[in-house]
Amino acid sequence: MPTRARAAVGLEDVALHSSRIVAAVEQVIEGKPEAVRLAVTVMLAEGHLLIEDVPGVGKTMLAKALARAIACSVRRIQFTPDLLPSDITGVSVWNQDSREFEFKPGAIFANLVVGDEINRASPKTQSALLESMEERQVTVDGVTYVLEAPFMVIATQNPVEMEGTYPLPEAQRDRFTARLAIGYPSAEAELAVLDHHGAGSPLDDLEPVSDGLEVAKLIAAVRSVYVAESVRRYAIDLVTATRDNRELRLGASPRATLHLLRTGRAAAALDGRDYVLPDDLQRLAVPVLAHRLLLSAEAQVARRTTLSVVSDIVASVPVPDGGEPRRRRSV
User: Fold this and answer.
1) What superfamily does domain 11-81+112-117+153-221 belong to in CATH?
2) How many C-beta neighbours within 10 Å does residue 234 have?
3) What is the pLDDT of residue 55?
4) Mean pLDDT of 258-275
């Protein structure tokens, strides 16, 4: 475990500490710097990440690499059709010795929870994550248990067109801060995968570069990033445009606006800035908003996607000037 000082982390340190995490994960994930950066951005935004793609492109590897780069408690849940909600949240068991019910925590009690193939479980089991992802607590038999900070869920899923999958409920998708598609690697990156993964797993050689306490401090520092009123209004304009779009029958929620601002703060901190620019929101609009939306019947017939609709919205909504705070002139 790292032995760095435990002093409070300032914004000027966020980019430095985060770059170490990014570099560590990139030792395992070849040729996907944007995907790794988005995963770290969501973590600093105190959010949850949904990784959706076809099998075999490194979804679970990315989640495991991020978990390994941070020395904190990690639990992995393999979602299957027979998985029960109590397997996730925990269950009260009768103790013969004490003559009382004793709570046995489920897999959700960890700093970083990796949910593999989440859409292979039934909607009832998927819903067991709702309270923990939004309120960071679990209620079992009328008793509420608070989850330890930091807390992040990284879930992978296969496209819903594949066999044995259940579509995630709208409420579940809305709790994921961002959705990430890794995609197939380039020829050069795939060649590097063969070199590095052929003789063994690079995860075995990945040493932690941070820990849960430091990540919690990074998250606290990111909260102080300045967001101008014009940038906040721009975030609202982007989200409102999804609600008024004729190609969508379900627009983004107010929670989506909040997540867009949080990830904007994290992206700015990663770049070494203490203020959010409209450019930050533009880059994050598709991964933060697209998975929450539902296409209209006409848009589906026209083979449109929520990604393309959000891209069009970003191109059409007027961009405000600035975003940098007014600084006092030195005398």
Assistant:
1) P-loop containing nucleotide triphosphate hydrolases (3.40.50.300)
2) 24
3) 76
4) 95
The string of pLDDT tens digits covering residues 45-67 is: 999 999 988 777 788 888 888 98
Q: What is the largest CA-CA distance in the chain?
A: 75
Dump pLDDT digits (tens) for 138-153.
998 889 999 998 999 9
pTM for this predicted structure: 0.88
Sorted by where each begins, the domain ranges of the chain are 11-81+112-117+153-221, 225-316
Helix orientation angle between 59-69 and 11-26, rounded to the nearest 10 degrees: 130
Fold of 225-316: Helicase, Ruva Protein; domain 3 (1.10.8)
The answer to whether residues 101 and 93 touch, using CB atoms and an 8 Å cutoff, is yes
With 0-12 CB in 10 A as exposed, 13-18 as middle and 19+ as buried, what is 207? exposed
Rounded distance between C-alpha atoms, residue 324 and residue 279, angstroms: 12
- Bridge-partner residues for 275, per DSSP? 226
Q: Which residue has the tokens 């019947």?
A: 297
List all residues 6 or more positions away from 266 whose beta carbon is below 8 Å from its beta carbon.
41, 42, 43, 44, 45, 222, 225
Measuring CA to CA, how many Å separate 72 from each of 26, 75, 109, 200?
19, 10, 12, 24
Let me know: does 310 contact 290? Beta carbons within 8 Å.
Answer: yes
Q: What phi, psi does 272 have (nearest 5°)? A: 85, 20
Q: Quote the pLDDT of residue 198.
A: 62
Mention every residue, 6+ apart, whose C-beta is less than 8 A from residue 74: 67, 68, 110, 111, 112, 113, 114
Which residue is associated with the tokens 């929670």?
255
